[in-house]
Records
---
Amino acid sequence: MESGCYKKLDKHLSVVGKSPEMTGAREKVTGKGKYTVDMKLPGMLYAKILRSPYAHAKILEIDASEAERLSGVKAILTYKEAKLLYVPGHGRNVDEFALDDRVRYAGDKVAAVAAESNDTAEAALEQIHVKYDVLPALLDPAEAMKPDAPKIHPELSNLKGNFQVVHKKAYGDIERGFREADHIVENRYTTSRVCHCSLEPHVCVASWNEEGRLTMWSSDQTAFAMRDSLCNALNLPMSKVRVVIPVHVGGGFGGKYGSAEGIVCALLARKAGRPVMLELSREEEFYTTRTRSPCIFETKTGFEKDGTFTARYVKAIVDLGAYAYGAVMAERAGFYHMSLYRCPNTAYDGYGVYTNNPPSGPMRGFTSTPIDFAIESDIDEVARELGMDPLELRLKNSIKTGDVIPYNDYDVTSSGLDQCMLLGSKRIGWERRQKNPGEVEDVKKRGIGMGIFIHFAPKLAGPNERSVGCATVRINDDGSVNLFLGTPEIGQGLTTTMAQIVAEELGARLQDVNVTVADTEKTPWGVVVSGSRTTVETGGAAKAAAVDAKRRLFEMASKLLKVPAGELLSRDSRIYVSGTSDKGVSFSELLQRSDVRAHGDNIIVCTATYQMPKYVPPFGAQFAEVEVDTETGQVKVVNIVAAHDVGRAINPTIVEGQIEGGVLTGIGYGLTEELVLEKTTGQTINPDFLDYKLLRAADVSKIETILVEPVDPVSVFGVKGIGEMGAISVAPAIANAIYNATGARIRELPMSPERILKALRTRRE
Amino acid sequence: MESGCYKKLDKHLSVVGKSPEMTGAREKVTGKGKYTVDMKLPGMLYAKILRSPYAHAKILEIDASEAERLSGVKAILTYKEAKLLYVPGHGRNVDEFALDDRVRYAGDKVAAVAAESNDTAEAALEQIHVKYDVLPALLDPAEAMKPDAPKIHPELSNLKGNFQVVHKKAYGDIERGFREADHIVENRYTTSRVCHCSLEPHVCVASWNEEGRLTMWSSDQTAFAMRDSLCNALNLPMSKVRVVIPVHVGGGFGGKYGSAEGIVCALLARKAGRPVMLELSREEEFYTTRTRSPCIFETKTGFEKDGTFTARYVKAIVDLGAYAYGAVMAERAGFYHMSLYRCPNTAYDGYGVYTNNPPSGPMRGFTSTPIDFAIESDIDEVARELGMDPLELRLKNSIKTGDVIPYNDYDVTSSGLDQCMLLGSKRIGWERRQKNPGEVEDVKKRGIGMGIFIHFAPKLAGPNERSVGCATVRINDDGSVNLFLGTPEIGQGLTTTMAQIVAEELGARLQDVNVTVADTEKTPWGVVVSGSRTTVETGGAAKAAAVDAKRRLFEMASKLLKVPAGELLSRDSRIYVSGTSDKGVSFSELLQRSDVRAHGDNIIVCTATYQMPKYVPPFGAQFAEVEVDTETGQVKVVNIVAAHDVGRAINPTIVEGQIEGGVLTGIGYGLTEELVLEKTTGQTINPDFLDYKLLRAADVSKIETILVEPVDPVSVFGVKGIGEMGAISVAPAIANAIYNATGARIRELPMSPERILKALRTRRE
């Protein structure tokens, strides 16, 4: 870890900026951590879901009588009981039922069984006989966009054809911009369908009590939104449903929220009168859990001789699949397009299209990662056209502190982007890149490339979505602190980071702070962990609650020490009079004074909410050095340098870990990962780790992380979101490095050996 | 149920005063409710405690090597590892260790074992070889009080001999009072050692995580005090220990808090590295769980010819047993003595004495029930001496609204005591009582008697004990309400009553309110459920939190409806403009408005504390009609009329249930129940339901309840504590009824057939 040139004088901080051990790490590495899947309730049944082999069909008849007679089968559910139970999703869409009499992709849910064992449930699925009326399937977005294409969601009468989103934005005069350009570069990029691959699958356990109260445990990314969706679907008051996300969740990456499985599981448990566990198999994880949206980007860039942009246009086509969880991406990619570089004339046309493919949706760097591949590959093409150093071109045109983003008039209060570029290029050895790409005669060619990013997630939330942090701080009689957060810990280190923020603000010993997360009966409301928002938003609330609790402590200490509260300081769970070293009182002494105790003045429970006054985007520059085997098409990633403007790293080790994990995701996205659908049936043909080609830690040579910490005046402790950033610019950096090595440009993801060999052949021809 | 003459116009109340079904009742009656004892954690071990056969001994040596070698034994604990871990108790005493090298009663803990099964643990106990140095045991308080008696707690150097408490209080001039009396009555009463007999025994489960966090589930009456005592003993921050009291607890009655078992269980679990359950057997329940304190009361009452009291004196000797959990009673009985009747000259000498008997402590009506037997029997004797109707004597001398209690200068803000006496005497048919006790010639003689009571518990808490209620109200987006309370539901109906208070104050639908209790990671701080304080104190906090939440709702509604908040009313989860029926908005509509949601203004979490500005004592008069078989000594209770000043019954059915349960306790205390200790060894000889003679519901003919509801200006909704009241005056009412039937006076509890026959013989002789 190397700190950026903006590093502040942090001498007044005692906990923030350090890297204490991550809470829960010991339980994870010793295998003792209990996940949802480890639960076992007395009498618990196991559920399985029957899935459609057809990409599009109407269910004419379901005969479950044979399955019902199987010994050990306790409940069967079909659309007859679950239709009209909407699955609330990501914002606007109400296009999916828990179960339906229509299936819209190969793998869509048809019926569900709860039985004494998983095996019995599986066996029962085979005894459920379904008569389908198979309908024509639209597997290609281009087909689905045709005016005469059959509607996949005829019930959504407000939609035109299969378009869920048609989003057009323009600033300046795009036509004039192109007219005035010295050069115009046009390209077409396609990105792939990839999967989150959380090590823990989607799993939930539902249990009802005698009075109709539902408790659900889940490996979800949200407790409260899941509670609300269950209440909506099942018509229950929110006070009577408890959703618990256990302290250990094996990853989420955007794939674990708002799913139909929870409702199905709850309905099965109610019908059977027993608790039910529903765990998705690895196969189901691959083909039913909302992949990253495959996209097509058509780009057109106009620029002057000196590299100044005159016009930038992107058309995006997003394959939503059967349900519209990815809809928002078709809009927000436009924001991304318009915010990373300065340009007076920009336009964006975005289309989110229903197909009969598996539904796509949020995934790490949801609205940034696919389009960044197109934009940052394009920048290299522009630089080549100009004969300019792509680093120089980026430094010239990229957004700077104080700039206003036209899309939403936000001004950039701090950007460490230029520093990321400068520090990162130095570290990777930018001067070593090929001057004449592809000219070296070796079979194995080396090259260096880069990509940059901005990221934007919260505050663009849908009109009805809260982008607010919430936290409760409780001080106990011994001065120890409980922090309650409604947001789950999904492995990102939330509990550690939040404890550091509260310990810092309160002046408490870190080891005295305990964090409780994501249980709708334990914690205040909490937003879904998504959009790299938690440290900023929930951290802001945690700090605010700590400020309030500290005020209470200082008021008491002020009376006791006969010193104005404004002259007090706290550190290590002790309150001092400023300027003295001996005059003071420990939290514990203060709170256990008999007069304070007797009147309950030491009962300190402070709840605070926090909304960012304005969004503070993170930035970064990622560099790749690759070695391309021109005979096999194999690409070896020699080194990745990830230089990130993280605002402030509350816990640098956790931040680095997040970035490294993201980089791995980015390498897989760039080179190997892809869910492949059979062209005629739409069935997923590689739903397993081996054929999907998920990378392992050992597949990566070297990742170097540089943390740049500019002073941001807006955010809490100056932090910026970091969870998704590692993934964004890795694929274009690799594409640009491959180009630098070989002179061959790959515009399709993943950049597989086949595609590389093909591109090399094209170049030679 | 019949309401008292003070019944208010409650038309403005919609939920309070009604009797909705008790939460959890269905789970209880269907047997589906899960208690602590039903828990089963993966890898859980079972613990047993080795107990001393000697009432007093020093442990010279413990050889556990054989036990350790037994297959399935996972951890053994002796004083070597647990000494110096104090068991915090009821207020002041620090006289008990988790395990000690000294045993102080027959049944005291010596060692503990955790093993794969209860049977293995039991077997291991037999393989632990202990060498004792047996010491002389003090089994009679009179012996223990002698100046030359050996000290049972020599380590408590500040104590004089075996006296834990010597408490003397006097008002007026007691000598002069007796000199001026026309009559003086002197008596001596003894009360018995009885047991709480909770249907669920003491049971706890301890589990540690990899980071040294402890979670404990327990059937205790307190989550937070248990957490604090574990932290004290084990030197852990309070934030890192979670204590959960499950929603179902099978009774407490004062017997379930502050015990050593929790610490032993936690230590075993830490040593074994696995979860441990420790459940006391029924035998242990009887002889180790702090019985009601056996007492001796010497009374002396001076009075004028017209029944006016001139002097009242009581000397109380309380057998604390080996540990001083009952110490406070030796003081507070003095308060009781000085508060029930007006008298210008009163004095009290109280002694709390250590013996080598099983420890005694709090039990339903802790400081009231034993002394009420003496005082209320005495009043009948005074009436007989005067030839006066005992009802008339009580009406003449009992404390009235506006009186000031000399003991602590509290004024009585409301008393329904006279009304209780008048209504109860009418109901029992007071005029049917024998004019000449014992003169009827039948073998089976009927008689009617009565007793009255005041009760006092909170606000006399120790100097370091908080008598404060605390509650958090959370409003969810759909307007439903979660109420969080740190106090446990032990079957008393807390969750129902508190939901009613919050629903009433907030104007919410009762079915939308859910109550979460007693989990140190879910709820704000909560006091132990004891002293009939919960509805008053915690209810006060629940109301205050609801007031705050309602203020937030009304502020929002005021903006929306453009009407000052002061003109708004709420009912059925809807806010109305006062005086209109159609203008308004439902909680749900209000909170789900997109502007409100987006900014998180609908995140409403309000925590409040409440301390009673002054104590509001409950009162009551209880009447018994009995039939005494003068040949067998058997007493049949024909009818009990319990007329109680309950302030206001939030849920009349629950109040009646509490009173009825208390009456049953009182009948057992009066007639059958007694833990009998062997005279020379101090061993309990009847530790089972049969020999202990616990009454069953079927043993009681009839209980009639009268609720008197005077307007109290101080307490929340006018409520008074009711949990313990049913038990207090039943025994003296029965004693007085037996006297009325037979002319024989019994001054020892229980009033067994043997004692009745003996008294009848004495009378005849």
---
Amino acid sequence: MAEPHFRRVALIGLGLIGSSIAWAAHRSGAAGEIAGYARSAATRETARRLGFCDSVAETAAEAVRGADLVIVCVPVGSCGAVAAEIGPALAPGAIVSDVGSVKASVIAQMAPHLPGHVHFVPAHPLAGTEHSGPESGFAELFDNRWCILTPLPDGEPSATARLRAFWEALGARTDEMTPEHHDLVLAVTSHVPHAIAYTMVGVADDLRRVTDSEVIRYSAAGFRDFTRIAASDPTMWRDVFLNNREAVLDILGRFAEELFVVQRAIRMGDGEYLFDYFTRTRAIRRGIIEAGQDTAAPDFGRIARTEKERAG
Amino acid sequence: MAEPHFRRVALIGLGLIGSSIAWAAHRSGAAGEIAGYARSAATRETARRLGFCDSVAETAAEAVRGADLVIVCVPVGSCGAVAAEIGPALAPGAIVSDVGSVKASVIAQMAPHLPGHVHFVPAHPLAGTEHSGPESGFAELFDNRWCILTPLPDGEPSATARLRAFWEALGARTDEMTPEHHDLVLAVTSHVPHAIAYTMVGVADDLRRVTDSEVIRYSAAGFRDFTRIAASDPTMWRDVFLNNREAVLDILGRFAEELFVVQRAIRMGDGEYLFDYFTRTRAIRRGIIEAGQDTAAPDFGRIARTEKERAG
């Protein structure tokens, strides 16, 4: 096994992302040892039982002591409080990072609490599932997924390079951009789609004329993909919307505007407009499959095609 | 193999649904023989090559001759024209059905062209993938999926029962409701989610500040589930929206209203409202998994969890 990228990695927060980092670091040997901390005693207990950390500390400060890499893996609304807690215990030269889905707000929350002798390199692995908690993590979560780093203007390039190499060892591809651009890109690719999916599931749940059991039974026709998105962790998503408010409202506004145009085409019976619109959106899907970010298997591979070749 | 449910089944339209019915009927022995027809010569040629029909006719009228079950599998905007074409050639006592995602409009289009000596039983299998065409069909498409029948008030119950048994032989579960209720249920579970997904993908494509390649690269964060939905057949979906206009506009209106409420909560920073909202939507997802209409595997099972049990 190769030399570890960091001697001691501290993970603050041991949910889906924290535990998956631990599993992936074990798999690759990227960390000499892994120290973990979670605010909830039950999570610490589960982490000890599953054994994905070499040690699970009783305080965040204790976990980060002596670590050369600290990754804060908590909902973005709690990053400031964690930074305040660990700040005084951080070792000189340590790299401090996070995994938040919003970057400008996390930087504003954390930076004031971090001592000058550490390197703060914010990052965001674009990976996740609709499950949460320490039992939902697995080593392959980041394989072939992107991790976006948003280094600060006065940051040390070598610290950024070391963190990139670490994420690549976990299986991810890496990229860099400014925090503000990150927040806009994610509003488009993630935050607004989640807001929309949550809303549509809420509408279905509210309707009196269609029962919940009908919605559930007939969900395979498209709706179930929305429910998967809308089943994601409520705390995480509340914090994302509160902390990326401007970009989300900007894109939501664009979406509402566009929805009215589509709605008008339906009302006016403008078949040509609808056909052209729906044809254009197919091309983006092809791009995603070609970029290796999804499978071309029908229906996400939910169905095997084993019978295809049999005689007619 | 059991006695076939129908001696001769004619399929008019040999795309994803038509070809899958043929494969599923072969698998179960539900059809004595299968005659097919498609408007496009290229599709007929492909169907002959793949061999999922016992015969592929050059006209729709020829295909339905002598058939005791005829299933029209064309976009809902073309059902009326097909009914006019096959009407005079239908055998006395034949059951005529369809697979359209909209029922009231299909009934209005087809019924006037069907002779009094056939039984018209409209139906809608809730199954599909984002792929289309004769090469995309497979025998398992309907397994454990629902097929909704919307019999006419003056219909013959035994014809409905025979069609139900046929769909169950293809692997589907069956249900009955009125055409109007079907159209509302599908507006909620399918048509509006598709309109929303198409719109969001269109918004992403239009933005100048975020490039298409960024959208594609970072789609795994939620957006790619929308692109799968928005990659469905443009002709089929144009026809769905034009033919289920009232129910779609009704539910789209509700959605827009609700979206404004969510948007306001984000603008006002109402975290409690958002958290409660997102918690409620999780329950619906659980219902869908319990009802067997989706997998509980994270991320639709895109990722294997093989490393989960290894030592920490």
